[in-house]
Write a structure and sequence with these properties.
heterodimer, A: alpha/beta, globular, B: 250 residues, mainly alpha, 12 helices, 0% strand
Chain lengths: 235, 250
């Protein structure tokens, strides 16, 4: 990284193309993102908005280093840790919340001893009570969400990618989650945040990217971008 | 990490079943019972001590087929986790293979007990089981990684793997003796192209015949497996993200 820039990640001419085979010869092809470039600043909360299917979730996966870009470059210092938080995925249904939490923590690079020490904190935060030691398959959607959120928030990573997570759980947990998020953000956490909840985006984000037809349609301060987005969506 | 996950998976599996850990032993023995019924009682194999012969064939084969089948689906089944974190994809087949290994050593102990109970007493030559076991394990790892990679790319491979297991079951000499093949060339070819048949024959040589195993052949399989394993790790490293993309688009 150059000395003057505080970009934690840079994206150059990124395109994402899906191909999905349907039978022998028919191939379904869809260009989700078409030659986009942007950067993520250190300690900023970047919101990504756009209609369903515009490629937001795929973008997060590419940024988190999970799937490759079709073309273009995502530049990120190799010692920057990244984690993607989505809902209800990634749990082993047969394992208890505790075992899942332990595995996830270790997969995020926390060593076993530290991970075990954090289990009580995790248990308390999730408010799962006795369910924490029951298989995840017995959980309600809200409980799974709480576990997922706790996992992402308790282990620190440099860049956190969040896909529509804050919009679940009951009102009480949502308030708590927002509170914890806000604390994290104040402590300098870099976050890329995808949501349909415009009020929430406005409240949390420093900057917004609006993706439309595979391109970055607008980028800028939350208020301006979301206002125009609201009008567009109302049409 | 692999160890922890494998143990947790075993614990979870056991907690779901009434007989929990007993199934580790019951399942292979039931297989043996079915084969015994068909080949010895209905078809009258005529071989003396057919039960021991069968146990020593079927149990190592089950270890191979279960591990590889389980591992082949492991990456696809962990789609959820793969969609969240960039992980070395070898992790998943390794967890499957190690889980199966932890079960297997219990099953092997039971097998050895049954063999001893039938009058084939343990002696020093039993130590030859160890290199055979180790090489079979390496070979299983290779097949597991290959299977997991291919199934992630083309889901149809799953069908071919189950067909392949059936083919192997018939060609590995589980309920018949490969040494009964009259033509020595055919025998050699079978051992060359089907390491599972070689493993089973080696277990029998040690446990039943008190004979000598073909150490050179065994070491060759072991060495080839190690080289292949190293290559597979390179391939998995190179295609890690592509694998994720493939699996997530399914």
């Amino acid at each position: 990284m150059s000395g003057t820039s505080n970009h934690i990640m840079t994206v150059n001419n990124l395109s994402i193309k899906y191909t999905n085979k349907r039978g022998w010869s028919t191939v379904f092809e869809h260009i989700a993102l078409d030659d986009i470039s942007f950067h993520i600043n250190q300690s900023e909360v970047l919101g990504v908005i756009g209609r369903n299917g515009c490629g937001k979730s795929t973008l997060l996966r590419v940024l988190a280093g999970i799937v490759p870009a079709s073309t273009g470059i995502v530049h990120c210092n190799p010692n920057i840790t990244r984690s993607l938080l989505t809902l209800g995925l990634g749990f082993r249904q047969e394992l208890s919340g505790r075992d899942n939490a332990l595995i996830s923590s270790m997969l995020q690079g926390v060593n076993k001893k530290v991970a075990l020490q954090k289990m009580d904190e995790m248990h308390e935060f999730t408010e799962l009570g006795e369910f924490f030691d029951q298989p995840v398959r017995t959980y309600s959607a809200g409980m799974r969400a709480r576990l997922g959120f706790a996992l992402a928030i308790i282990n620190s990573v440099d860049v956190l990618f969040i896909d529509e997570v804050l919009s679940v759980g009951d009102a009480k947990f949502r308030a708590k989650a927002e509170q914890v998020m806000t604390n994290k953000l104040n402590s300098g956490q870099t976050v890329v945040f995808v949501s349909h909840n415009i009020a929430q985006v406005n409240k949390i984000c420093d900057r917004i990217i609006w993706i439309r037809d595979g391109k970055i349609y607008r980028t800028g301060a939350p208020k301006e971008v979301t206002e125009e987005y609201r009008e567009y969506m109302a049409q | 990490m692999v160890d922890l996950q494998a143990r947790m998976a075993l614990k979870a599996e056991a907690s779901r079943l009434y007989l929990s850990y007993l199934w580790w032993v019951i399942e292979p023995l039931l297989y043996v019972a079915v084969f015994y019924l068909v080949f010895n009682i209905f078809l009258r194999s005529g071989r003396e001590d057919f039960l021991v012969f069968l146990i020593v064939g079927k149990i190592p084969f089950l270890w191979f087929s279960k591990s590889v089948t389980l591992a082949s689906n492991s990456i696809v089944e962990n789609r959820g986790l793969i969609s969240q974190i960039d992980l070395p994809k070898t992790l998943f087949p390794y967890v499957s293979v190690f889980g199966a290994l932890y079960k297997e050593w219990v099953v092997f102990l039971v097998m050895l007990m049954l063999v001893a109970l039938h009058g084939y007493y343990p002696d020093l030559s039993w130590f030859w089981l160890i290199p055979v076991f180790v090489v079979q394990f390496l070979f299983i790892l290779c097949c597991a990684l290959i299977g997991a990679f291919l199934v992630s790319y083309v889901a149809d491979i799953r069908m071919i793997i189950s067909m392949g297991m059936m083919f192997l079951m018939f060609t590995s000499g589980i309920f018949w003796d490969i040494n009964d093949i009259a033509d020595p060339n055919k025998r050699a070819l079978l051992f060359l192209f089907n390491p599972v048949a070689f493993f089973i024959d080696s277990y029998r040589k040690v446990l039943v015949d008190h004979g000598v195993i073909d150490l050179e052949h065994l070491l060759a399989i072991g060495f080839a497996s190690l080289v292949l394993l190293a290559l597979l790790h390179l391939v998995f490293g190179r295609y890690s993200k592509q694998l994720a993309a493939r699996v997530l688009a399914l």
